[in-house]
Specification:
With 260 residues, the protein is mainly beta. The chain is 12% helix and 34% strand.
Length: 260
């Protein structure tokens, strides 16, 4: 299990392109162990008395296997009585992960803003595959639902890194360059798919997403049922573009979906 922020980031080997699928898959390295499953997300910090520094357990830092680029920086501080997580990327990569194995996909809500966007980011290309701010849900999709070729790539990547990888990761990417709600497959692996959100400007924006509906929108070609969650993660990366970004997220909550 990866330790919290003191874990020294290292980089994946060049030329092993399928390991790029492990970028988000490496979140499971942090999510695989630890205490018993939580029924909901723990806050980044106590809102009544927010502290400077990283969130306490069960939030843990996760990078990629063999990472040599810098780690994305996370800082919890108070802002108008709320605990706010600042996320700063500078040619870097990193995520904070909260494991939730077996928890049903419910309603995920949060507030976020991006004060410094990534100018060269382009989710369609490998060179531009960076995100100034993202919120991800890792799903326990059965491996047999994954197309055959992609199953083999997953096994190859798992053999290289010696850890299991998730079969379906859905990331909400703050990317005003796309129409809101666009589904964009990751340029390296279809095991990761983005839903683009966010509008230009540095003001706080509130999001509320039905994880089950969004899973079916993004992965409905592979499964007509919604698997349980493995983890929720937040992060930012600028290791492909070499850019800099600055964003913040607050009030991240996972609740059961409202009864219809």
């Amino acid at each position: 299990m990866l330790k919290a922020a003191c874990w020294p980031p290292e980089r994946e080997p060049r030329g092993f392109r399928s390991c790029r699928a492990a970028r988000v898959g490496a979140l499971l390295l942090a999510a695989a162990g630890g205490a018993c499953a939580e029924s909901s997300l723990a806050p980044f910090a106590d809102a009544a008395a927010p502290r400077a520094g990283l969130p306490a357990s069960p939030w843990v830092f996760a990078g990629v296997p063999g990472q040599k680029v810098p780690a994305t920086r996370f800082l919890v501080a108070g802002e108008q009585g709320q605990a706010v997580l600042t996320v700063e990327a500078d040619g870097s990569y990193g995520n904070l992960v909260h494991r939730l194995p077996g928890v049903a996909a419910g309603e995920l809500s949060w507030r976020w803003r991006v004060e410094r966007p990534l100018q060269a980011a382009d989710l369609r290309t490998r060179a531009g595959d960076d995100v100034a701010l993202k919120v991800c849900a890792l799903f326990d999709l059965p491996r047999e639902r994954v197309p055959f070729v992609e199953r083999q790539l997953l096994r190859l990547a798992e053999g290289r890194i010696g850890e299991p990888l998730p079969n379906a990761t859905l990331c909400y990417a703050f990317d005003p360059g796309w129409p809101s709600g666009s589904v964009v497959p990751n340029a390296y692996s279809r095991r990761v798919r983005y839903i683009t959100l966010g509008a230009a400007g540095a003001a706080w924006q509130r999001e509320r997403r039905n994880l089950a509906a969004d899973f079916l929108q993004a992965f409905g070609d592979e499964s007509s049922t919604v698997p349980a969650l493995l983890a929720i993660a937040v992060g930012a990366d600028a290791d492909n573009t070499g850019g800099r970004s600055l964003g913040a997220i607050a009030e991240l909550e996972l609740r059961p979906s409202p009864a219809r």
